[in-house]
Design a protein that fits this description.
alpha+beta, eight-stranded antiparallel barrel, elongated
């Protein structure tokens, strides 16, 4: 039997083009099928990023490098100091002084470095010295290097912990009524007052904070505990007057200040 012209083989050859055409039509028809409701919902929903599904976190405000210049007023207390001013009067414990301060701190991030100066004046009058016709004035001068570490609380409120180290100068000055109010225009040649100065070291920690009520203005307060290291032996004058303080002294300083911020 001749298979070259068999009707069955001819029929199979005729079916091959039909299969190919049907596959092409089916492939083109599948992408164009109608979208289901679920597909439409997924297409209309925007893609959620990881940050959109998580609660927003407040970042700490960026602090630009700036200089803070402050001027303040406060009180200095020496509760355990033995204050001696004249050989005719006994030493008494404790001292309180009104203090004025000026500081300039440059800040980078959370670190602040600067310098400050303080001046304080004794408040208690020297009754024994006045009874002898003389006047005694005691004052303090401090020059410190300042170190601060800032811990931001809010965008406008900050506080810091730090310390200071520097020099302290105690000045004792005696004068007489004739020197302060001469009887005539004639004056004796020479100094009108007798001054005795004592130098020492000042070191201690501090804590404070401020509120920025304007873009460049702040108001705040601070507390400092300092150790003054003065010579253990009191210096004396030719009239046997001695320095008011000697040795190690505990000092407490509390005050308020007003400051101006200058952006670097």
């Amino acid at each position: 039997m001749n298979t070259e012209h068999s009707p069955h083989r001819v029929l199979r050859r005729q079916r091959y083009p039909l299969f190919i055409v049907g596959g092409v039509v089916f492939g083109l028809a599948c992408p164009a099928r109608a979208a289901s409701p679920a597909d439409a919902a997924r297409a209309s929903t925007p893609a959620m990023t990881p940050t959109a599904t998580q609660p927003l976190q407040r970042e700490a405000p960026t602090v630009r490098p700036h200089a803070l210049i402050t001027g303040g007023v406060g009180m200095i207390g020496l509760p355990a100091a033995q204050v001696c001013s004249s050989p005719s009067t006994p030493c008494r414990p404790g001292e309180a002084s009104l203090a004025l301060s000026l500081a300039n701190v440059v800040r980078w991030g959370r670190i602040g470095i600067g310098a400050g100066a303080d001046v304080a004046f004794g408040l208690r009058p020297e009754q024994g010295v006045r009874a002898a016709g003389r006047d005694h004035v005691r004052s303090y001068y401090a020059f410190d290097a300042l170190f601060r570490y800032y811990l931001p609380l809010a965008r406008r409120v900050e506080w810091w912990v730090g310390g200071s180290i520097g020099a302290i100068v105690l000045s004792d000055t005696w004068s007489t009524a004739a020197d302060r109010a001469p009887y005539s225009d004639l004056r004796n040649v020479g100094p009108q007052r007798l001054t005795l100065r004592t130098e020492g070291l000042s070191v201690g920690p501090s804590i404070g904070g401020h509120w920025r009520f304007r873009d460049r203005w702040v108001i705040g307060s601070q507390f400092r505990y300092m150790n003054w290291f003065l010579p253990t032996s009191r210096a004396k004058t030719a009239f046997d007057d001695s320095a008011s303080l000697a040795g190690r002294i505990d000092v407490f300083d509390v005050g308020v200040f007003l400051g101006f911020r200058g952006i670097l």
